[in-house]
């Protein structure tokens, strides 16, 4: 065990921890061990009251250990071999069962059978797995993702190659052999056929096969779903759908203007960079085998929730994600999104979102599993009311008043970096420059890549409000300073930029 039993007792029951007074209810114990093995592993402490955490100990510990091992052997299939220990705590003996994520999943309760007896762990509860989830558990063992499977009754003509070329036109010219290398199509009995991922991304009639592979967006009045102001159902190809979601969020955000410089600078009331990353994460990690479960984006006055179907993959916990661990549910979709520079290195997205929220002074986002879905919650700095007029998307309604802008700029936007930057400029950089520094944390990016990461489409805005101030501040530099207009030009952090980022993170840790 990585943690001593005394420390485990002080923790709350959850995805990987459960307490039992004794083994008088073996059926529940068996379900818990099956769920642990099928999900992220876990530890069961027997001899502890699950409500009060009072250490009661077990009577006749050696006999109870033997009985428990027999119960496990007789009631779980395939065979499960957990680590069972007797531990002394407060002069009493506890029985501790440690289960690791199994490479033979799915396990099931033998009496219930392989179709009805498979359980997974959701929070502190055990949930019976349905047919789609059982298939998902099997796939995670084989290493073949759902979107890598071939659709033998379809042909290459079922893919919208023109739409794919449009998505890639900013990056490179897409040719038909790229469909094979990116696993959009695969060979089956001598013929090329679409994969599930190919149809999800660029299928001409995607919703005939996957009727729930779309995104539902809603703007609600207040802090619950009692009153909806506006909604949109997005059925476009997945790479394009990401942009449509961002357009919807911007439509209902407030956009202020900072006129403290000669140029106007937009100040959005929502953290676009974090939200874009969260939407992309939901698209890449959704379980598209589930029925009746589209991706949902809910915009409330005080928060924005992005929710996708599918529990966390076996062996992965929310705590693991916060440390940078990542498992890819959809290999094909992830590959294409990376080719499009929509995602970066595996596992960096969640950490980057939390770090940016910290630097911007926002409440920390939250990741929770709710039923068979994962919800990412982005809390806003200030509550945003909605207009009662019908055209809420008009700039006249969405823009802050001059007084609001002045107050926001005074309280929340640091001084804009100008060409007269001093060595102390890192104390007064804008949110835009900070966003650029964050996205260059561990890589060099070209202009288009950086713009996509930040979530803006205007080149002048990027150059004048992000890039030039960052370079003038000495935080960012060109990789090819002698060829500033080179088509392969990229940008990276300077030592000063890395020092600035380190100080910003440390400052918000205090």
What value does the average pLDDT take? 85
CATH topology of the largest domain: Heat Shock Protein 90
Number of domains in the coordinates?
Answer: 4
Distance between the termini: 32 Å
Largest sheet: 6 strands, mixed
What is the correct CATH architecture of the largest domain? Answer: 2-Layer Sandwich
Cα-based radius of gyration, to the nearest Å: 26 Å
Number of strands: 20
Strand content: 15-25%
- What is the C-level CATH assignment of the largest domain? Alpha Beta
Q: Which consecutive residue ranges, at least 5 long each, have pLDDT under 50? A: 388-427
| Biggest sheet strand line-up | 12-11-15-16-18-17
- What structural category do the secondary elements indicate? alpha+beta
Overall form: globular
Helix content class: 25-40%
Q: How many DSSP H or I helices?
A: 20
Pfam families: Fic-like_C, HATPase_c_4, SLFN_AlbA_2
Describe the structure.
Residues 13-129 form the Schlafen AlbA-2 domain. InterPro entries: Fic-like_C, RecG_C_sf, Schlafen_AlbA_2_dom, Schlafen_AlbA_2_dom_sf. Residues 431-494 form the Filamentation induced by cAMP protein Fic-like C-terminal domain. The chain is of the alpha+beta class and 510 residues long. The protein folds into four domains: 5-128, Methyltransferase, Cobalt-precorrin-4 Transmethylase, Domain 2 (2-Layer Sandwich), CATH 3.30.950; 146-209, no CATH class; 215-379, Heat Shock Protein 90, CATH 3.30.565; 414-509, Orthogonal Bundle (Arc Repressor Mutant, subunit A). It is built from 20 helices and 20 strands. The strands form seven sheets. It has a six-stranded mixed beta sheet with strand order 12-11-15-16-18-17, with helices on one face. It has a four-stranded mixed beta sheet with strand order 1-2-5-4. Strands 3-6 form a two-stranded antiparallel ribbon. α10 packs antiparallel against α11 (272-285), α11 packs antiparallel against α14 (348-359) and α17 (431-439) crosses α19. The two termini are 32 Å apart. The relative contact order is 0.08.
């Amino acid at each position: 065990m990585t943690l001593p039993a005394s420390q485990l007792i002080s923790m709350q029951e959850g995805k990987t921890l459960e307490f039992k007074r004794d083994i008088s209810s073996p059926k529940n114990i068996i379900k818990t061990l099956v769920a642990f093995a099928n999900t992220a592993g876990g530890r069961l402490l027997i001899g502890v009251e699950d409500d009060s955490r009072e250490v009661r100990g077990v009577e006749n510990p050696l006999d109870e250990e033997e009985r428990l091992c027999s119960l496990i052997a007789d009631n779980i299939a395939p065979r499960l071999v957990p680590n069972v220990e007797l531990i002394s705590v407060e002069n009493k003996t506890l029985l501790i069962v440690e289960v690791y994520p199994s490479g033979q999943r799915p396990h099931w309760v033998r009496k219930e059978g392989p179709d009805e007896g498979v359980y997974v762990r959701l929070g502190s509860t055990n949930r019976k797995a349905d047919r789609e989830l059982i298939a998902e558990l099997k796939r995670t063992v084989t290493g073949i993702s759902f979107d890598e499977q071939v659709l033998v009754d379809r042909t290459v003509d079922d893919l919208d190659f023109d739409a794919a070329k449009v998505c890639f036109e900013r990056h490179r010219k897409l040719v038909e052999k790229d469909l094979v290398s990116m696993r959009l199509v695969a060979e089956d009995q001598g013929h090329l056929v679409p994969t599930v991922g190919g149809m999800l991304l660029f299928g001409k009639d995607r919703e005939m096969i996957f009727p729930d592979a779309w995104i539902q967006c809603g703007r609600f009045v207040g802090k619950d779903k009692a009153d909806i102001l506006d909604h949109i159902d997005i059925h476009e190809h997945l790479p394009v759908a990401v942009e449509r979601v961002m357009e919807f969020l911007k439509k209902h955000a407030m956009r202020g203007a900072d006129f403290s410089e000669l140029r106007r600078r937009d100040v959005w009331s929502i953290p676009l960079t974090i939200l874009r990353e969260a939407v992309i994460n939901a698209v890449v990690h959704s379980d598209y085998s589930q029925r009746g479960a589209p991706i949902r984006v809910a915009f409330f006055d005080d928060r924005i929730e992005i929710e996708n179907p599918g529990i966390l993959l076996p062996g992965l916990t929310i705590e693991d994600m916060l440390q940078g661990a990542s498992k890819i549910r959809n290999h094909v979709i992830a590959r294409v999104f990376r080719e499009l520079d929509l995602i970066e290195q595996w596992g960096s997205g969640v950490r980057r979102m939390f770090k940016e929220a910290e630097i911007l002074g926002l409440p920390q986002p939250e990741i929770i599993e709710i039923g068979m879905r994962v919800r990412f919650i982005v809390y806003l700095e200030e509550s945003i009311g909605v207009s009662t007029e019908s055209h809420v998307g008009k700039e006249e309604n969405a823009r802050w008043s001059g007084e609001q802008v002045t107050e926001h700029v005074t309280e929340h936007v640091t001084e804009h970096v100008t060409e007269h930057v001093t060595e102390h400029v890192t104390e007064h950089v804008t949110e835009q420059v900070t966003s650029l520094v964050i996205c260059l944390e561990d890589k060099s990016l070209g202009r288009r890549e950086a713009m996509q990461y930040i979530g803006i489409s205007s080149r002048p805005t990027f150059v004048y409000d992000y890039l030039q101030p960052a370079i003038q501040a000495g935080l960012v530099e060109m990789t090819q300073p002698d060829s500033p207009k080179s088509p392969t030009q990229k940008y990276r952090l300077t030592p000063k930029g890395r020092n600035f980022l380190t100080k910003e993170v440390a400052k918000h840790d205090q």
